[in-house]
Write a structure and sequence with these properties.
With 260 residues, this protein is of the alpha+beta class. The protein has seven helices and seven strands.
Length: 260
């Protein structure tokens, strides 16, 4: 008999075996899928979202730096304020209804009285920058409400940093006027610096800030990966069902050969 004909017979025989035990096959498949849906229900959901931001106004005392240094310095100061527990406490105290806990953004873990930086996988809030000057705060949370709470806190930190830069600028401007008042006419550079400092203060009064922040992106469900889990369990159910049917058919044939 040609090989192709034998293959066709084998294939038809395979489907005949499955059809013969269709009830057992379906029972196993449905049982495995039931376990799948139960497993998914007991998995904690985890959402991800991003808050993009870019550098806003640069304080005059950073003017001597190049653009990359300015960017680095402002983001460094922002992150220092953001992860400062005192800053967080003042923000939370301004509205007692806020339920966000500092531990959610805390980047450190205490082990045996010593502080260690949490790994990226265990941190809920991460700052990310790339060479294209694209900056974002990456958020991971089990509650979508916390995403907007973090955005509110991030906005508060931005205002706090801008206010701090404004105070430093006022002191910087007063020092310039006190130390170089007699040289302002002679030294054009000093005059320009004072003008730049005054412009910074005016822009802050007009609503400008150290960072320009975008609203959070729409939360994306990252865990559990429902589709992937369902596919894996479905394949497992099919394999188990097919294996059971083939083993049962083999047992039948063995019994039949004994009887003959």
């Amino acid at each position: 008999m040609p090989q192709s004909t034998q293959n066709e017979i084998d294939i038809f025989d395979f489907f005949r075996i499955i059809a013969r035990d269709w009830f057992s096959f379906l029972t196993i498949l449905i049982g495995v899928l039931s376990l799948c849906f139960t497993y998914i229900q007991f998995q904690e959901e985890e959402y991800e979202a991003n808050i993009s931001f870019e550098i806003g106004i640069t304080p005059p005392f950073f003017r001597d730096m190049d653009i990359q240094e300015q960017r680095y310095s402002i983001i460094r100061d922002y992150k220092k304020l953001f992860f400062d527990e005192g800053t967080f406490s003042r923000w939370k105290a301004s509205d007692p209804s806020r339920t966000l806990a500092y531990d959610f953004i805390q980047p450190l873990d205490e082990i045996n009285g010593k502080l260690f930086l949490r790994s990226s996988a265990k941190r809920n809030v991460l700052f990310h920058s790339n060479n294209k000057n694209e900056n974002e705060i990456q958020l991971k949370t089990k509650s979508t409400d916390k995403i907007y709470n973090i955005f509110q806190y991030a906005t508060y930190v931005n205002k706090t940093l801008t206010a701090r830069y404004t105070d430093q600028t006022e002191k910087y401007l007063n020092d310039l006027r006190a130390n170089y008042a007699s040289k302002m006419i002679e030294n054009h550079g000093i005059s320009q610096l004072i003008v730049y400092t005054e412009i910074f203060s005016e822009r802050v009064k007009s609503g400008a800030s150290s960072l320009n922040m975008q609203n959070p992106t729409i939360p994306v469900l990252k865990k559990p990966k429902k589709l992937l889990i369902t596919i894996v369990f479905s394949v497992l159910g099919l394999l188990l069902g097919i294996t059971f049917c083939l083993m049962r058919e083999a047992y039948r044939r063995k019994q039949a050969s004994r009887d003959t």
